[in-house]
Amino acid sequence: MNMMILALCVGAVIIAGLAFYAGQLLYKLSAQKKLIAKEQVKQQAKLAKLAKSRLERNAKLADSIHLIARAMHQEQCEFSEGSLRIWVLMSQYSFEDDEDLPGRYPGIFAMYEVVKEMPTHDARKKYSKKEIFKQDSARWRAEETHAEQIKADCEKIIEEFKAAPGSENVVFN
To answer: What is the CA angle 146-156-142, rounded to 5?
Structure first.
């Protein structure tokens, strides 16, 4: 009989120890779940902030792209300069899906390809007048060659990239 009581006591101690250990594991699991939930909330907030900043950045880029395209369409900005500026801005724009920009805006892309390696500002001063005239002539020919396609591209851009409120009333003189 003493053996039986001893076995029951040992069994009860073992069961109590296992129950205590199971309780600790459940507590740790609960704490881990709370930590994971907290981290997910932080991650979602971070993603929301990134999405918001991306939208704000895209809005500023779209406004600039729109204004340059309008100036080009109204012939207030040379096609070569506008194409260079628009292409650089579009490369910074975050599109929803992968855009085939050269296929979508072939005139602007063709003009960009012509002028992207040409020196500007102080870099032009390093060249002779003859070399600068040669580059300018190539640029003028390309502007003439691609003029109709660039204007069509500008019309598409004006429709697709919306101006920021207030800037749609900017007048080019």
So the answer is: 10
Which region among 20-34, 40-54, 119-133 has the lowest average model confidence (pLDDT)? 119-133
Element (H, E) at 22: helix 2-73
Per DSSP, the residues of 46-59 read HHHHHHHHHHHHHH
Tokens 């205590």 belong to 20
Mean pLDDT, to the nearest integer, of 127-135?
Answer: 87
3-state secondary structure 27-49: HHHHHHHHHHHHHHHHHHHHHHH
Alpha-carbon distance values, 45 to 36, 40, 55, 57, 96 (Å)? 14, 8, 15, 18, 20
User: Which residues are CB-neighbours of 59 under 8 A, at least 6 positions away?
Assistant: 164
Helices (H), 74-161: 79-92, 101-104, 106-115, 129-160
Give this prediction's pTM. Answer: 0.71
Alpha carbons 70 and 77: distance in angstroms, whole number: 9
Are the C-beta atoms of 158 and 65 separated by less than 8 Å? Answer: no
Residue 107 class from Cβ within 10 Å (0-12 exposed, 13-18 middle, 19+ buried)?
Answer: buried
Neighbours of 154 (CB within 10 A): 26
Output the CA torsion 17→20→26→30 (10° steps): -150
